[in-house]
Design brief:
This protein is mainly alpha-helical. 44% of the residues lie in helices and 6% in strands. It contains 2 helices and 2 strands. The chain has a two-stranded antiparallel ribbon.
C-alpha cells in the first residue's frame, strides 16, 4: 500500500480477499473481515483511500466478482 499506485493497491486488495476466502479451490462465503494495516506511516493518502474503497467494493458477501 505504501509504494504501489492506487490501481495496484486495488488489485492487491482483490488478491488478498481472493486468497483469504478460498480453501481447496472452494470459495467460502463468510468469515473474512478485511481491513487496512495498522502501519500507515509514509503511505500516500490516495492509497489509504483506495484501500478503503476497494474493501467496500469487493469485501461484501457473496463474493460474486470472483
Amino acid at each position: 500500500m505504501t509504494f504501489g499506485t492506487p490501481d495496484e493497491v486495488e488489485e492487491h486488495v482483490k488478491s488478498q480477499i481472493r486468497k483469504a476466502t478460498t480453501l481447496d479451490g472452494e470459495t467460502m462465503n463468510g468469515g473474512y473481515i478485511p481491513g487496512p494495516a495498522h502501519d500507515l506511516l509514509d503511505t500516500p493518502f490516495i492509497n489509504v483511500e483506495r484501500t478503503v474503497q476497494s474493501i467496500a467494493k469487493y469485501g461484501k458477501y457473496p463474493l460474486d466478482w470472483l
